[in-house]
From TrEMBL:
Keyword flag Hydrolase: no
CDD domains attached to this UniProt entry: GntK (cd02021)
Any single GO CC term annotated in Swiss-Prot or TrEMBL for this entry: cytoplasm
Pathway in which this enzyme or protein is active: Carbohydrate acid metabolism; D-gluconate degradation
Gene responsible for this protein: Idnk
Protein name (database record): Gluconokinase
UniProt key word ATP-binding: yes
Family label: Belongs to the gluconokinase GntK/GntV family.
EC number: 2.7.1.12
UniProt record, GO biological process: carbohydrate metabolic process
GO terms for MF: ATP binding; gluconokinase activity
Record keywords, A-Z: ATP-binding, Kinase, Nucleotide-binding, Transferase
Length: 158
């Protein structure tokens, strides 16, 4: 797509990275400053009229709301309405697949601070996207070209 790419893992604090490396799952309190910083990056790109892709494990609905609206999502306890007060237009791509397939891929990853042992905690935390969130669900068991085509179709055909 020629869009700027950000890997959210690059923006974790040293404390978060150390915690994960020790096999300790992150708490909401650990993640919120990280998510706010990611929102700021996306807002900056949006202000520059640049499209961007962010690879991020936005596991909970509140995490995705923070990516869209920043810190104000934490303070707002009102139910979210489609398009209401949304600071950014974000299409969330929920890559869905069985834990054993993901675990196999994590086992092959080298030099990353998150050990495969934390995968279960991520599945336990996961709140799959639902209406009114702007999302698509794509099976990660498809071939990579099919996954990319499905995402591109959702972006451009909406």
């Amino acid at each position: 797509l020629g869009w700027k790419f950000y890997d959210a893992d690059d923006y974790h604090s040293p404390e978060n990275k150390m915690k994960m490396a020790e096999g300790i799952p992150l708490s909401d309190e650990d993640r919120i400053p990280w998510l706010c910083a990611l929102h700021d990056i996306l807002r900056r790109e949006d202000s520059s009229r640049q499209d961007a892709i962010l690879a991020c494990s936005a596991l909970k609905k509140i995490y995705r709301r923070i990516l869209v609206s920043g810190a104000s999502a934490i303070e707002s306890h009102q139910p979210e309405q489609p398009g209401e007060n949304a600071a950014l237009q974000i299409l969330f791509v929920h890559l869905h697949g069985p834990m054993d397939v993901i675990a196999g891929r994590l086992e092959k990853r080298r030099g990353h601070f998150m050990p495969p042992e934390l995968l279960k905690s991520q599945f336990d935390t996961l709140e799959p996207p639902s209406a009114p969130e702007n999302f698509i669900t794509v099976s990660l068991e498809k071939a990579l070209p099919e996954i990319v085509q499905e995402i591109e179709h959702a972006i451009f055909q909406g």
